Amino acid sequence: MNIISELFGKSPFGPLVEHTKKVHECVEMVRPLMEALVQENYQELHELQDKVSKLEYEADKFKHEIRSQLPRRYFLPVERVELDNFLHCQDKIADYVQDLAVILTIRNTVVHPSLVDKYFKFVDQIFQVTATLLTAAVELQNLAEVSFGGAEARKVLEIIAGLGEEEWKADRMARSLSKDIYRLEKELDPITIIFYEKILLALGSIANEAENAGDMLRTMIIK
Question: What is the CATH number for 161?
Answer without folding.
Answer: 1.20.58.220
